[in-house]
Amino acid sequence: MSNHPSAITQSVALRAITQGVAPKAIAFGSINMDLVATTPKLPVPGETILGSNFFTIPGGKGANQAVAMARLGVAAYIVGRVGDDNFGNQLLKNLQAAGVNIDNVLVDENVSSGVALISVDGTGENQIIVVPGANGYVNSTDVDNLISLLPSCQILLMQFEIPLPTVLLAAQAAKRLGVKVILDPAPVLQEIPAELYGLVDIITPNETEIGQLVGFPVIDIDSATEATNILLQRGVGCAIAKLGTKGVICATKEETFIVPAFPVDTVDTVAAGDAFNGGLAAAIVEGLSLRQAVVWGCAAGAIAATKSGAQSSMPTKEELIDFLQARGAI
Prior knowledge:
It is built from ten helices and 14 strands. The chain has a ten-stranded mixed sheet with strand order 1-6-5-2-9-10-11-12-13-14, with helices on both faces. The chain has a four-stranded mixed sheet with strand order 4-3-7-8. 47% of the residues are buried. With 330 residues, it is an alpha/beta fold.
């Protein structure tokens, strides 16, 4: 399919700087619709089974992180693409309702919106097929839109659900303009350009992802410490390893510290990592220290784990502050 800019229409003309609030943080990444079917068991090849429930959930790591920031009171923008279809319309309306500025989301007439087809059985096991759709066509045109917003921005959040060359272009632009880059390296790619590490201010893999990045299992604090040091040697400014119930380890060239996990009654961990990134970014925008920002991230992720769904589980700023105060963490 053609991806020439003339084949694309914007949802709304570029007007971010002249109208409304200028962005403090931008999520540059994926926007998906998750199509979820629940069933007593997962089918084997060639088998047809009856499901028990079906629902759609707005997702995509870029969209999730944008919503997480907006819920926490940040002037959050998203730059990316949806298809010219019903899912695209729904996704844009949902982002807008959550307080995310969508003026720089392109509506691609030549491709569908990104979708994830998810089957979940009674034990929680799942099968997932991701069709990137419009996310797979994010390119230099979208980077140009991003660049128009960066001068007023403090933070750029990115992931690997859009093409890697585009992520690299965006990181280069952010570095030139002095914007802090936070990279969530998910899904982990086989090869990451060495240059990209040097453009990243903060990288935030979970324990599986960081293990894949460094080439050995990360199973405890000691192995996580070794892994974060390797990422620092590759050029990142700060390496944060999200270790689930074991907490978070954060390493810079000056210090390494651990923030324990907040114990909660977990409902599901869908998008808890995205909530962490949103909390981390929101705290940095607030001018808090790195240690305080990691605490905000841990709290946001913990709150998200107590609710079902992705974007619907993201906490508000009031919820986050109340959570921290109740635990003596603020």
